[in-house]
Write a structure and sequence with these properties.
This protein has 434 residues and is an alpha/beta fold. It contains twelve helices and 18 strands. The relative contact order is 0.08. Iron/sulfur cluster is lined by residues 154, 156-158, 161, 163-164, 198-199, 235.
Length: 434
């Protein structure tokens, strides 16, 4: 039995599905209970300090399990392990950890695990060789919706972000491999495919073939079938009119654009090395709204970047009011040693940043509630995803990535249904299957 815990973003989820694919082929079953496991593996996230602290805490707790079950293999992988200071700390302070490998070593997992089992020695493999993994078996968590990585790594070096250091340089999979995998998923009955990459708009850079992300989308969209195609994450500096036109004209691509703006202040955007201004961002949004009238917009925001003043923060507030995002992923700035921003003076207190953050959440709640209310009475085609264990309702997702809960039989899970929206509960909708 294997117990796999995944922290962080969808890229990590997709990596864990590959590790599970290998383990499944080797005859492993999976459990959520670490006490029952022969292998405990944490796929870790380094994006914010809080994420790292959680991992260190949870790894520390494994010491007792190892004492009770000395034969269990304890393995750590993912972004944290690509940082030398972290791997060194694990090596010195957590001697019960048997295997450590980085994001680049996923395709070597079977060999590393086998060597650890046979030799019994601790293995630390965090070399960064900018690999692309092909022909890796994938055991997806769901049978009807799945992640499909199209590119790995990031070359953008936003000044706050650790990702380029832990996931390496941008590299794209061949369009042939991506399209073949998409086709196989559609033939296997997948109803939703999400193309993944840290910066999908750069897809194709460095490939021998001459292809853009928009062209890749068009080629997948041309595959016959009843499915919805999503992608994340886009960077505003590379979000072209061609991409927006492709969404507008497509048959399968969801009418949703996740376009992180991070800050509404051009001064802060410059310090973040984002390479667009507030005005440029808003002009992309205007174009998207004009071409895709019912477009649903979401974004990531960082509050309290070093040097940000309350006036700068107010520009973030005014931007979200102007755009009217349907939902936001909001973060308080977390200092990541090794990134350029970590060297900048940061004078605003955590308490003050917390107040700004609360103001941001409140403003967004009002916007989302208004957006959701305006949908009452409309009909939406949704994918039925799962039972909400808390209230027994089925949780469904619209093309625009909004959750609608309905009372219906769970045999509908994994199917598309038309739903009339009857009620808006803040940012969650309620509806009836018709
Ligand atoms: N502090 C806070 N948030 C961060 N993000 C990335 N790095 C940091 C950091 N150091 C956020 C950004 C990014 C999302 C995935 O995580 O908003 O878009
Ligand atoms: Fe990090 Fe910026 Fe790359 Fe996104 S685009 S992963 S925020 S460096």
């Amino acid at each position: 039995m294997a117990c796999i815990h995944t922290y962080g973003c969808q890229q990590n989820v997709a990596d864990s599905e590959k590790i599970k694919g290998y383990l499944h082929l080797a005859g492993f079953d999976f459990t959520d209970n670490a006490e029952d496991a022969d292998l405990i593996l944490f796929n870790t996230c380094a994006i914010r300090e809080h994420a790292e602290d959680r991992v260190f805490g949870n790894v520390g707790a494994l010491k007792n399990i190892k004492r009770r079950h000395p034969s269990v293999t304890i393995a750590l992988c993912g972004c944290m392990m690509e940082q030398k200071v972290v791997a060194d700390r694990i090596y010195k302070s957590y001697p019960f950890v048997n295997l450590v490998f980085g994001t680049h070593a996923i395709s070597r997992f079977p060999e590393l695990f086998y060597n650890q089992l046979v030799n019994g020695r601790r293995i630390f493999d965090t070399c960064d060789d900018n690999a692309i993994y092909e022909d890796v078996p994938t055991l997806r968590d769901k049978q009807f919706k799945g992640w499909l990585p199209v590119m790995y790594g990031c070359d953008n070096f936003c000044s706050y972000c650790i990702v380029p250091y832990v996931r390496g340089r941008e590299r794209s999979r061949s369009s042939e491999a991506v399209i073949a995998e998409a086709r196989a998923m559609i033939e296997a009955g997948y109803k939703e495919i999400t193309l993944l990459g840290q910066n999908v708009n750069s897809y194709g850079k460095g490939l021998d073939e001459d292809i853009t992300f928009s062209e890749l989308l068009r080629r997948i969209d041309a595959i016959e079938g009843d499915y919805i195609l999503r992608f994340m994450t886009s960077h505003p500096k590379d979000c072209t009119h061609e991409l927006i036109d492709t969404i507008a004209e497509s048959k399968h691509i969801s009418k949703h654009l996740h376009l992180p703006f991070q800050s509404g202040s051009s001064k802060i955007l410059k310090a973040m090395n984002r390479r667009y201004t507030r005005e440029k961002y808003l002009s992309i949004i205007d174009y998207a709204k004009s071409k895709i009238p019912d477009v649903s917009l979401t974004s990531d925001i960082i509050v309290g970047f070093p040097g940000e003043t309350y006036e700068d923060f107010c520009e973030t507030l005014s931007l979200i009011k102007e755009v009217e995002f349907i939902s936001l992923f909001t973060f308080i700035y977390s200092r990541r040693p090794g990134t350029p921003a970590a060297e900048l003076p940061d004078v605003v207190t955590e308490e003050e940043k917390g107040k700004w953050f609360t103001e941001l959440l409140k403003t967004q709640e009002e916007i989302a509630a208004g957006r959701c209310k305006s949908m009452v009475g409309s009909t939406e085609r949704v994918l039925v995803e799962e039972i909400n264990e808390k209230n027994g309702l089925l949780s469904c997702r619209t093309s625009g990535n909004i959750i609608v809960e309905v009372q219906a039989d769970d045999s509908l899970i994994g199917t598309f249904q038309n739903v009339r929206i009857t009620e808006a509960r803040n940012w969650i909708l309620r509806g009836e299957v018709i």
